[in-house]
Design goal:
By secondary structure, the chain is α+β, with helices and mostly antiparallel strands. The protein is 59% helix and 13% strand. The chain has a four-stranded antiparallel sheet. The longest helix is centred in the C-terminal third of the chain and has 34 residues. It is elongated, with a radius of gyration of 19 Å. It starts with 11 loop residues before the first helix and ends with a helix.
Length: 172
């Protein structure tokens, strides 16, 4: 078994950074914005305070409250898996470790909201014309980018590296 100092656990500072930025921006949004009232920032971007009692896109938001604990348990379980994944990787910053830390930090950022408030605070409202994307937050951005990086790493970067290693071994 690898020592913790030699594993990617040392990259957890990135997940902690996501959590801090996420929580600070949510505190800012709650203190400055009025619920449901958009504040124009840029063309196609508003700050609009919203509370989500469900999952992404308010999935299961009106189910009576059980979903709070279900999504909390799900995020804690996924976070544990990501933590163990980091423990098995070497201590280096790459697409895989950054992706894991972004998903981990985002998941924990939203778990903090669910546990303390029973809902997730959202405030970023992207729109085109009359169409508005679901309101989201920094944790959601981190999860989305992290998931994209993990897909990139697992489906493209790792297979390419393995192919190069195989070619190198054959040529040696």
């Amino acid at each position: 078994m690898k020592e913790t100092n030699s594993t990617a656990i040392k990259t957890l500072w990135l997940a902690l950074l996501v959590i801090v930025i996420d929580q600070l921006t949510k505190v800012w949004a709650v203190s400055v914005l009025a619920l449901g009232e958009p504040v124009a920032v840029l063309p196609h971007l508003n700050w609009t305070l919203a509370y989500n009692h469900g999952a992404a896109f308010s999935f299961l938001a009106d189910m009576g409250g059980w979903q709070r604990w279900f999504f909390t348990a799900l995020a804690v379980g996924v976070s544990a898996i990501l933590w163990f994944w980091l423990k098995k990787l070497p201590n280096r910053i790459n697409t895989e470790t950054v992706g894991i830390n972004l998903v981990l930090g985002g998941a924990i950022g939203n778990v903090i909201d669910r546990v303390l408030e029973g809902r997730v605070t959202d405030f970023i409202d992207f729109y085109i014309g009359l169409w508005h994307y679901a309101t989201f937050n920094v944790a959601d951005i981190a999860i989305s980018i992290g998931a994209g990086l993990l897909i990139l790493s697992e489906l493209i970067l790792k297979p390419r590296a393995e192919k190069r290693q195989k070619k190198s071994a054959e040529n040696a």
